[in-house]
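From the shared-data thread, chain only:
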Amino acid sequence: MASIVLWAIVGAAGVLAAAAAFKYRADLMHRQQRIAELERLLGDARLDALRTQLHPHFLFNALNTISAYVERDPRTARWMLDRLGTLLRMSLEHAREQEMPLERELTFITCYIDLQKARFDDRIALVTDVAPDVMTALVPSLILQPLVENAVRHGIATGTSPGRIEIHAHRDANTLHVTVTDDGPGLPRDVGFGVGLSNTQERLERLYGKQAEFAIANRASAKSGVRVTLTLPLHFSPPLPRDPRERGSGGEGLPSTEAVEARTRIGDDSPGS
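Structure, as tokens:
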């Protein structure tokens, strides 16, 4: 009889211990899930902060350029406001998205260059060479704008001669390679990253970790200029419908090099026509 009672006590203790262990494990998993969720939210908040740091800087430059034309050339000012409106609309549409299709990113850049061409008296030529099979590849939202802005500021604005900016993109197995080059004076020694480039590097690290690479250096195969290279994990979005509100979009898919250069000129819909 005593042995039965003893085994009953041992059995009950075992059940209680097992229940306590199960509850502890469940509580531990719940805490780990909460920690992971908080870390994700913190990471998203940090990414949002990194992205929004760029917008005021870009908006200030654009408005400053437009203000110079308000009195002496109102038609040009209205045309530039139209381009700025397109940029702001696209920014708002993708405000909560960490990634956007490369095609839409290039449309944004073309509008941005339209504004810069007016600012620098048509001294900027934009050339794109993008493989058709990466048009719907996802890239960090507005990731190219600070790279192109950097090329304009340091590669073209510092001189008086025309400048050329090139954007290339292609795939290699499961990797997307994007390069932005200019033909400016190149990087001085011991140059540091500004806000735009620092944010670009940190966004890539937070979004993709070791799967992404960011490199900037003077062009080895040219007398001058800078090359920025982005290496990203390749993944896609569904094909995008053409937005009829985007002016000068041409046909389906990315415009050819000639079409892009035509769009970046102040053409038929420009104030000079």
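Helices lie at 2-67, 74-93, 102-119, 144-156, 195-208, 257-264.
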